[in-house]
Design goal:
Blueprint: E1 2-6, E2 9-13, H1 16-39, E3 41-47, H2 54-57, E4 60-68, E5 87-88, H3 97-112, E6 120-132, H4 136-141, E7 147-158, E8 164-173, E9 175-176, H5 180-188, H6 193-209, E10 217-222
Parallel strand pairs: 4-6, 5-6
Antiparallel strand pairs: 1-2, 3-8, 3-10, 6-7, 7-8, 7-9
Helix pairs in contact: 3-6
Length: 224
């Protein structure tokens, strides 16, 4: 790169290679910005086919919650806005992310099913298909944007006979993620991604079991 003075300004003469390198960097930045601003907008939902009948579920009480997080699910620790993986979770210390997700989901489902106090003991069995929370990079850099994508399959089994009372169904428990100043204010109140996800999944389970308000809804959000 050669430089010379011209009318008080410093003119910069780029070689062809230098010009191409800088151009590539500009294009990469512009592409990333476009992805954040437009490519990730979409429609999301908390959804299950139909709530279970309260006349049935009121006869149950949950004695166990079993959560399977298959090894086939991919995990990412990439410090980026949107890692391409099934499991993205950062609030717990580095470690077994599948085990951490299983603990979060078990606690949430126990909370959501505590309204069942009937005589028949049942087990709620979950298989996770996705647990994609915001990275800290996305939480910090986004504003009024972001989605926590929580997806799983659930079934109900009689704890004594192992009879399947409710066959496997898909539940989508997506929720708007707080980001930017909103999440900073939430953390100042003592909220975390974990507490927000736990509460939402618990409300979803209660709605599905018929012991709480129907949690099904959809929303449009600029999300990652």
């Amino acid at each position: 790169m050669d430089t010379k003075r011209t009318s008080g300004w410093r003119a910069i003469h780029l070689t062809g290679a230098s010009f191409m390198a800088i151009s590539r960097r500009i294009l990469l930045v512009a592409g990333a910005s476009a992805l954040v601003l437009s490519g990730c907008a979409g429609r999301f939902k908390t959804w299950y086919n139909e709530p279970l009948s309260p006349s049935v579920t009121k006869g149950w009480h949950v004695v166990d919650v079993q959560v399977d997080v298959p090894q086939s699910l991919t995990v990412s620790e990439a410090k980026s806005l949107e890692p391409r993986a099934d499991i993205v979770w950062r609030e717990d210390p580095p470690g077994d992310r599948r085990a951490q997700v299983a603990t979060i989901m078990e606690n949430a489902v126990r909370l959501g099913s505590k309204g069942l106090r009937g005589p028949r003991p049942v087990i709620l069995q979950l298989t996770m298909t996705r647990f994609h929370a915001l990275t800290f990079e996305a939480e910090t850099r986004l504003s009024n944007a972001g989605v926590h994508n929580i997806n799983f399959v659930i079934q109900v089994v009689d704890a004594s006979t192992k009879e399947v009372l409710v066959p496997p169904i898909d539940i989508d428990a997506a929720l708007p993620a707080l980001s930017g100043n909103q999440m900073r204010a939430a953390r100042a109140r003592g909220e975390t991604q974990k507490s927000q996800i736990t509460y939402h999944v618990a409300q979803t389970i209660a709605g599905w079991l018929g012991t709480g308000p129907d949690a099904r809804r959809s929303f449009t959000r600029m999300g990652i």
